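WARN retry 2 of 3 for item q-0093 after timeout on previous attempt; input resubmitted unchanged.
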Amino acid sequence: MLLPLYTAIGERFHHKKEPRDDRATIEGALTDAGLPTDLADAMDDPGYDEALRASHKDGMDRVGYDVGTPVISVQGASFFGPVVSPIPRGDAAGRLWDGVLLVSGTDGFFELKRSRTRDPVFD
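OK item q-0093 returned
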């Protein structure tokens, strides 16, 4: 159920430009994903704060605090990224993943980056 919710939230935030801190936005995304809207109660429930902070700290401790998100961990190495737009599909996605595996296995590899030359493409 996470992928449909992640997709629905992304659709509402990025395509429809709906407010991120608005309960109606989250309830709409939950509905789009076929989930109960009362899950939006978690937005204001401080009971999740400690676990969320611990999870975020774990991810950032792995990669360092001089980067952003997303963070992935592969074969014991953690990196910021990949940030790709439009996303590759099929064989192109496999080639990208092969590259991620290659750099994750390269001792001393830290960073590969360039400036963005276009706005995100959501296909």
